[in-house]
Design goal:
The chain has 293 residues and is of the alpha/beta class. The protein contains 15 helices and 10 strands.
C-alpha cells in the first residue's frame, strides 16, 4: 500500500512535468517497475543511479533474481558512481548502457556555514558509528596513541550507532574508556542536517578510516567530499578509487586500510605540522569545488 501511494504521488508529478528522463535514486524494486511502465507509456528515458555494489544490496533483498532484473535490466541507463560499478554492470548484462555519475557535494552548504568553536581543537568523524564500514574502532585506537602528546585535542564523533547492534553507543563509550580517552572523546550524537556543516568547518582534521571491503572498493563516500568541502585536513583510507582521484599529501593524507599504526602516524604528522594542515585544508576546498561540486 505504501509503495502504491508513493507511485501515485510520483505519477501525478510526472504527468504534470512530462520529463524526457527520470533519474531514480533508491532500492525499491516495485516502485522502479511502476516507473518503467510510466516511461514506456510516455517515451521517457529511465535512469537508475547506483552508488553501492549490488552484492552489498543483495544481502537485504527478498529475491536475488527479481532485484537484479528490476534494478539493472529495466532501466535504459545505469548511472554509476565508480568505474568498478560500471564494470560489474557490463559483466552482469552485455549491452547495458552506463554513464559516469560521480559523488557530488553541495559546496554552498559548507561555504556559508559558521564554524563551530567549542573551545578546543578537534578531530572529527561524522556518520553512523560502525567498525566494518568506517573503522571507528581504528580511529579511537589511533587517537588514544597520540593523545598523550597532544592533550589539548579532542575527538568529536557525530552520529549514532546502529540500534540493536553489538556495536551500540555503550560499546563505543566503553571502547574509549578502555583506550583511556573517555574524557577526550566527545560523543556528539545525531545532529540536525543544518548543524553538521558548522561542526565539519570547525574541525582542523577529519578522518575516514574505511577498512578494505567490497563496499569500500566499489563506492566513493559522500562524507569524504563533505569533509573536503568543509575545509578540513582529511585522513582517509586508500581503498577503491580514492587514491586514483585525490593526491596524497596535497589533497588528503592516504593511509593503508585497516592499519591502525599507519593511521596513528598520519594523525601525529598532522597534529605536529600546522603548515601542512593549512595546505591540506586549502587544497581540499579547491579540489572538492573542482571535482565534486
Amino acid at each position: 500500500k505504501q509503495i502504491w501511494s508513493r507511485f501515485l504521488w510520483a505519477r501525478r508529478l510526472l504527468n504534470s512535468l512530462r520529463p524526457e528522463a527520470v533519474l531514480f535514486y533508491g532500492e525499491d524494486s516495485l516502485l522502479l517497475l511502476m516507473l518503467r511502465h510510466w516511461c514506456n507509456h510516455h517515451g521517457a528515458v529511465l535512469v537508475k543511479e547506483e552508488n553501492e555494489h549490488p552484492e552489498v544490496r543483495l544481502k537485504t533483498a527478498r529475491s536475488r533474481r527479481f532485484f537484479l532484473w528490476a534494478n539493472y535490466a529495466l532501466p535504459d541507463v545505469v548511472a554509476c558512481m565508480t568505474g568498478v560499478l560500471a564494470e560489474w554492470m557490463r559483466s552482469y548484462r552485455s549491452g547495458i548502457r552506463t554513464v559516469s555519475f560521480p559523488m557530488t557535494v553541495d559546496m554552498e552548504r559548507f561555504r556559508t556555514a559558521i564554524p563551530e568553536k567549542p573551545g578546543y581543537p578537534y578531530i572529527v568523524y561524522c556518520g553512523i558509528l560502525n567498525d566494518h564500514k568506517d573503522g571507528v574502532n581504528l580511529l579511537l585506537s589511533a587517537f588514544a596513541r597520540v593523545h598523550a602528546e597532544f592533550p589539548e585535542w579532542r575527538l568529536v564523533l557525530i552520529g549514532g550507532a546502529i540500534p540493536g547492534s553489538p556495536q551500540d553507543m555503550e560499546y563505543y563509550r566503553a571502547f574509549a574508556k578502555e583506550c583511556g580517552t573517555a574524557e577526550a572523546t566527545v560523543f556528539a550524537g545525531q545532529m540536525k542536517p543544518e548543524q553538521i556543516p558548522g561542526w565539519l568547518r570547525g574541525a582542523e582534521i577529519a578522518v575516514l578510516a574505511r577498512p578494505d571491503s567490497l563496499q569500500a572498493k566499489a563506492g566513493f563516500p559522500t562524507k569524504l567530499g563533505e569533509y573536503m568541502a568543509a575545509g578540513a585536513a582529511v585522513i582517509v583510507s586508500d581503498v577503491g578509487e580514492i587514491g586514483q582521484t585525490l593526491r596524497n599529501g596535497s589533497d588528503v593524507l592516504l593511509v593503508a586500510p585497516g592499519d591502525a599504526a599507519d593511521l596513528e602516524d598520519a594523525l601525529r604528522r598532522l597534529l605536529k605540522d600546522a603548515p601542512l594542515r593549512k595546505t591540506l585544508r586549502e587544497n581540499a576546498v579547491e579540489t572538492a569545488g573542482t571535482k565534486f561540486n
